[in-house]
Amino acid sequence: MMSPEALIPDVLLAVRELTKRFPGVPRPAADALDFEVYRGEIFALLGPSGCGKTTTLRLIAGFERPDHGRVILDGHDITAKPPERRGIGIVFQDYALFPHLSVLDNVAFALRGRSRRQRREQALTWLEFVGLADCANRLPHALSGGQQQRVALARTLAAEPGIVLLDEPFSNLDTALRETTRLELRALLKAAGTSAVLVTHDQSEALSVADRIALMRHGSIEQIGTPEAVYRTPRTRFAAEFLGKTNLVTGQAAGPVADTAVGPVALNERATGEVLLSLRPEHLDLKDGRGKPGAATVVTREFRGHDLFYRLDMDGRTFLALTDYRVLFEPGDRVLLSAREPAVVLRGPTRDRFAAVAPEERARAAE
Amino acid sequence: MYILAPAVAAGAAMLLPIVYLVLRALEADPALLAELVWRSRNLQLLLNTLALTFGVLAVATVLAFPLAWLVARTDIAGARLITILGVLPLAVPGYVMAYALIGLGGNYGLMHQVFGIVMPRPQGLWGAVAALSLYTFPYLFLNLRAALSGMDRSLEETARSLGHGPWAVLSRVTVPHLVPALLAGWLVIGLYTLGDFGAVALMRYEVFSYAIYTQYAAAFDRIYAAWLSLMLIALTLCFVLAEPLLFGRRRYARVGTGTSRPMPPVRLGRYRWLAYAFVAAVFLASIGLPVTILAYWLTLTWPPAGLDQVGVVFMRSALASAPAALAAAVVALPIAYLSVRYPSLLSRLIERAAYLGYAIPPLTLALAFVFFSLRSAPWLYQTLTLLIIAYVISFLALALGPIRAALLQARPSLEEAARSLGYSSFQAFVWIVLPLVRRGALTGMILVFVIAMKELPITFLLAPTGYTTLAVTVFSRTSEAMLAEAAPFAAAIVLFSSLFVGVLLAYEGKR
Fold first, then answer.
1. Can you say whether residue A96 is alpha, beta or left, with left for phi > 0 and alpha for psi between -120 and 50 degrees?
2. Contact B424 A96 (CB under 8 A)
3. A64: nearest CA in chain B?
4. If 0-12 CB within 10 Å is exposed, 13-18 middle and 19+ buried, where does residue A249 land?
5. CB B189 within 8 A of CB B140
6. What's the rounded mean pLDDT across residues B2-10?
7. Residues 6+ apart with CB under 8 A from B238
8. What is the pLDDT of residues B210-242, one digit of tens each?
9. What is the number of helices (H) and of strands (E) in chain B?
10. Which of B117, B337, B421, B433 is the most exposed place for a label (fewest CB within 10 A)?
C-alpha cells in the first residue's frame, strides 16, 4: 500500500494505527489512532480526562512505546527513535522549568553544541520573542504562571523542533489569565511559524486556539475537523454534547424533514425512519404559546447580559434555549418552540454510518 | 539499565550478612542445636532485653511528651532554646552517657570526691535504662513536637462543636493523631536500644547484644553467638513489623484542601514554674551531667594522659567515616532513583533491604561480617575496606532518606523536558537530576559521616588491629575503669557530635 502522506505534500506529522495498552487496564489508552497534522497548523486533541489524549501526545514525543502503529514526521518513520532524537518539542502541563537554572540558562539549555556566548545571545533573542527578556536572570519560581509558560515555550522553540506538543497548556493558570493567554499563545506559535499539537479537556480552549480539532473518546477519534465544522455538524451524540450544550431530540425522518416533539424540523441531510437529532439551544425560537397544544413551560430563566438562557419543560422532557435579550418570558409561562436552523442527524457512537441509514435501505430492499 | 544494575547489586549486598549468619548458625549439629536454642539462659536474655527496651521507651516517653507539649502548645518562654536543648542529648552517645553515670558514683566518683556522698556506681537494668533513655528521648521529642505543632486546629474545634468535652477531644482526636509520631519515635528508640552495645556492656547488664559479645570475645563460641544474633534479629523484626500492624491503613494526613490553622497556645499561668522545673531537671540530667562529669575528670588530672593522641585517634575515626559517607550517598542514589521513578515490586524490595541494614543490630551486623570475611574473603578480614563496607550497609538508610526526599521534588517532566531538548537519558540525569539532589545527598553524607564517627560495636569488631577510634578508646578505657584517661576522647565525641545535632536541626527546620 502506498503511504498517503507521500501524496499530500503538506502533511507534517502522520499517526498511523497507533495503539497503546497499559497493563491492568482493559481498554486501550490509544486504539488504532489515525490522523495527520498539516504544516503550520495548530491541531488540538480534545476529550474528557482519561480519553487517552495525553498518552497520544507522549507516544508522539517518544516517552511511551506504542504496541502497534507508526509515527511519521516529515516523511520519516520515527516510531523507534528515542525522544532526544525525534526533533519534537514538548511544553509540559507543569512547564518543567529547571528550578536550579535561571530563566536565561533554561532557554540556553536547549541550544546545544554552540559556544557559551552564542547560546546566551540566542537564548536572549528567544526570550525577547516571548516578551520576557527583562526576566532573563530571575529564577523560574519568581515568575508568574503565564510567564513560566512563555519561558517553557521559548525553551522549546529554541531547540528548533519540527513540531511542538503542548500538554494542557492552560490548566495551571488562573481562569482570568486563561483567555488572554490563549490568544497570546496562538499568536506566538503563528509568529514562529511552528506546527503544534495541543492537548486539552476544555472545549472552549480547543475552539479558540486550534485550526483543527480531533475529538477523542475511549482512546479513539470521534471526529476531526475545523472547530466550526465540528460544532455545527457533530457526527455523534458524544460530539454534540461535548462541544457546547445541545438538545437531543428523537424524531421520525422522512427525507429532508423529521417529525419531532417540537414539530416538523428541517434536517441537515436526508434520512428515513427513527433518528436522533441535535438542536443547539441558540437555534431554538420561543413564541407565546398560551392555550396552544404542544407548548412547553418555562422552568428557569438566566439573564446573562447580552442573551437569555431558558430551561423549559415539555411533558417531562427538558429543553434548553438561548435567545437574544428581546425574548422575555417568565418562569411558568407557556411557550411554543421552533427550530430556526436544520437539526443535525447523529450517528451511533461507532464509525458505523449504517446505523441511521439502515431502515431506508431495508425499505428499499422490500420494494 | 545503568540505574537498575547497581541498585540490584546494592540490595543483594544488604542481604549478605543475614545469609552468612544463617550459614554459620546451621553449622551446629542437630543435638547441639536443640540444646542451644532451648537453653534457659536465652529466655533470661529475652526477658532482660524486653525489660530494658520497654524501660527505655517508658522513661523516654515521660521525658519527651511533656517537653514536646510545652514547646508546641504552650506560651512557655524560650521554646526555640528548649527545642535545641531537647535535641542536644543526641550528641552524647549511650556509652558516653553510661560513662558519665559511672563517673558519678563510686569511691573516686564526683559525688564522693566533691560532695562526700557515697553513691554506688549505677549499673544493671536501671543504669542502662537511664543511660539509653537520656540519650534517645530526643528522637521521640522531635516526632511528637512535629505532630503536635502540625495538627490542624479546626479538627479539635470541630470535635468541640460536635459536643465533645475537652477530655473527649484529647482522647478521641488529639491522641489518635499522635499515634503515628509516637510509633515512629518508639521504633527508632526501640531499634537503638535493641542494638545498643556500649551502654549495656559498661553497665554490665545481660541482654542479647552483650551476651553475643561475650560469647564471641570471651568464650569464642561463635555458633552460639550466631544463634543469639539470629534471635536478636528476629526480635528486631517483631518490632519493625509491629509498627504497620498497629498503624494499620489509617491516614492521619489532612484530607481535602484549604489552609490549616495552627493551634492557639495554652496559657501556663501559675504552672509556669512547674514547667520550668521539669525542663531544667531534664536538661541537668541529659546534658548537664555528662558535661560536668567530663569537665571533672578532665580537670582532675590536667593535662590528662593521652591528650596528645586525641588528634591522631580523631583522624582514624574520620578516615573510616568519610569514605563510608561518600560511598553511602553513591549507593543510595540509584536505589532512591529507582524507587521514586520506577516503583515496582523489585524497587520496593531493594529499598526494604536498605532499611533492613539499618534495623539489624550493629553488633550482629559486625559479627556477620566477621563470619563472611573469614569464610569467603580472608583478605578483607580486619581491613579498613571491610569496616567501611559495614558502615555503608548499616547507615545506608540514613543517606537514602534525604536523597529520596530531594528526588521526590524533582518531577519526572524535568527529565523528559531535557530529553525532548535533545539530551540522552544519561545526560539528563547528570545535568538535571544530580544538581537537584545535591543538597539532599550532602545532608545524607553528613548524617552518615557523623553517626559513623561515634559508632562503637561495628568499629570494635571490624577495625584493623590497633586501629583504635574515638568510640573504641572511650569504651575500652571506661570498661577498665580508666575514667580520667577516657575523658578527652569522650569530650571530643561530644563536641563533634554537636555538629550532628546542628545538621539535624537544620534539616528539621527546612521541612
1. left
2. no
3. B416
4. buried
5. yes
6. 78
7. none
8. 888 888 877 667 778 888 888 888 888 888 777
9. 25, 0
10. B117
**Residue B152: its pLDDT value, please?**
67
Judged on CB neighbours under 10 Å (0-12, 13-18, 19+), A316 is exposed
ipTM of the complex: 0.78
Q: Coil, helix or strand for A361?
A: helix
**Position of cell 569511691?**
B107
Closest B-chain CA to A63: B416
Q: Between the CA of residue A293 and those of A227, A259, A261, A346, B394, what are the distances in Å?
A: 38, 16, 11, 28, 87
- Residue A74 corresponds to which cell in the numbers above? 516529515
Using DSSP, state whether A335 is helix, strand or coil. Answer: strand
Does residue A95 contact residue A149 with C-beta atoms inside 8 Å? yes
Q: Which helix (H) or strand (E) holds A249?
A: strand A247-260
Reported as type and span, the H/E element at residue A357 is helix A354-366
Q: Where in chain B is the domain with CATH 1.10.3720.10?
A: 1-24+304-511, 39-251+272-300
Cα B396 to Cα A291, B241, B400, B449, distances in angstroms = 85, 20, 6, 11
Choose from A109, A111, A148 for mutation: most chain B CBs within 10 A: A109
- Closest residue in A to B409 (Cα) is A99
Phi, psi of A230 (to 5 degrees): -70, -35
Residue A353 predicted with pLDDT over 50: no
In chain B, what residues touch A161 (CB-CB under 8 Å)? 420
Q: How confident is the model over B462-488, as a mean pLDDT? A: 85
Write down the pLDDT at residue B261: 54
This model's pTM is above 0.95: no
The reply to whether A155 touches chain B by the CB within 8 Å rule is: yes
Distance CA A74, CA A96 (A): 27
CATH number of B1-24+304-511: 1.10.3720.10
Kindly list the structural domains of chain A, giving each domain's residue range(s) and its CATH number in brackets, ordered by start.
8-237 (3.40.50.300), 245-366 (2.40.50.140)
Backbone angles phi, psi at B272, to 5 degrees: -50, -45
Q: Does A139 touch chain B (CB under 8 A)?
A: no
Nearest to B410 by CA among B351, B328, B350, B333: B333
Range ranked top by mean pLDDT from A100-109, A283-292, B4-13, B352-361: A100-109
- Which residues in chain B touch residue A98, judged by CB atoms under 8 angstroms apart? 414, 417-418, 432
Q: Is B421 on the interface with A (CB under 8 A)?
A: yes
Chain B hits for A83, Cβ within 8 Å: 416, 419-420
The string of pLDDT tens digits covering residues B110-168 is 777 777 777 777 778 888 999 999 989 988 998 888 888 777 667 777 777 776 777 77
Cell 475545523: give the residue.
A226
Q: Which residues, numbered 9 to 48 in chain A, qualify as contacts with chain B under a Cβ-Cβ cut-off of 8 Å?
A: none
Q: What's the one-letter identity of residue B469? A: T
Question: B39-251+272-300: which CATH topology?
Answer: MetI-like fold (1.10.3720)
Rounded CA-CA distance B112/B110 in Å is: 6
Average pLDDT over residues B302-324: 83
pLDDT tens for B420-434 read: 999 998 899 899 999
| Best A59, A60, A63 residue to mutate vs chain B (most B CBs within 10 Å) | A63
Closest partner residue to B417 among A85, A86, A96, by Cβ?
A: A96
